[in-house]
Predict the 3D structure of the following.
Amino acid sequence: MLIAGLDVSKADVVVCLIDTDQPLPDPRELYLTGNFPRLTTTAGGLKALLELKPDVCVLEPTGTNYSKFWCYKLNQAGVKLLLVSHSKVRRYRECILSEDKDDEGDSLALAYYGVQNFKNDGAFLRRRDDVAQQMRERCHQLDHLSRIQSPIINRLKQDLAWQFPEEASKRVEAVLFWRWLAGEAKSKRYDNALANTCGLGLTESTRYHARLLIQLFPRQLQLTRELATLLKDPRFRPYRKVFAKYGFGEKLEAILISHIYPLSNFLGEDGLPIAPCTRSKKDPKKQTVKHLSLRRFQKTLGCSPTREWSGKKNKGSKQAKLAGSAQCRVGLWQWLFTRIEKKGARPKNLPQTAWLVSETLVQGSILEYFEYQKSTAVIKLARSRTIAKVTKLLFYDLVAELSPDSQK
């Protein structure tokens, strides 16, 4: 069997081919003497790769675009694909080669990793469901358009502050105003307001930026409608039923589903959360339950740090870093800002939870938990604790909703 390690970059791919039917060469020797073809992202490069006749290709999910071409074409050609996370490749390369990084070393590390872990499915990243992947791509496109839109809006508001100050605080949702400003729509109201403004009058630069802004609106609307259509997939109904309790918007629902679907990826073979009972690290005489499924779920949503303890630099110090999806983490924080902190937008009948106050168990809604945290900690910590509590409740609500008993 031929296993190819592919290090994908913007315009090409470096290949390391290993034949598992032959004795496995020393990685350092192969790195120095081996052949590592560099194939361009063209029809000729694809043909050259397929002529090598790999049975399996191992690669990193480089971005969402660079590797997409190769994944699609190789999958179309019937080649099995295995994806490895960036962190695993980095550590594995440092282990078998050195800390020096280059494309040839990465492709070699990917090939060796594939050979040694081929039969271990847990060593590779799971492939997303096609519909979930489509939702993820559309969410990324919406985020991209928002990043383009924000500086244009800021520039317009700064200019309107002296040109047309009466309308300088317009929100992006005021589509008619922006279309009028761009000259694409008529409005007697804004014509009269401009005629009587105390400002210095509109410039062509402001009109130009308004035209740039309104060009984004149709695409944003189209992507939003496509997301709404994809969310109607019957498989997502139990997920959305749970999300409705928290007052999540459609975009946040799509982001979460694209990362956690199917939930069975986080559960054991029996469909239940994995929570083994092991010896406590603090006190070897005691047993402690490790909620592994919950931890993986929270880490996927970007709400659980990766611990880096060493010697005395352990608990009590800031030896941890954020892990998981930044997109999910940002979406959940935005939900907290707009639906929990904002009094006029709070959902009714939020899920209930429990917490300790002076060794007394107190029950209440997520909102009450957040208010309690605000009274005992700085606001940033209160928000972080609330998000952690929400993801925990969300996980167990999803497990309960997706259990065979609830599906009957």
The radius of gyration is 26 Å. Residues 236-306+320-407 form one domain. The chain is about 50% helix and 10% strand. The chain has three domains: 2-123, 132-223, 236-306+320-407.
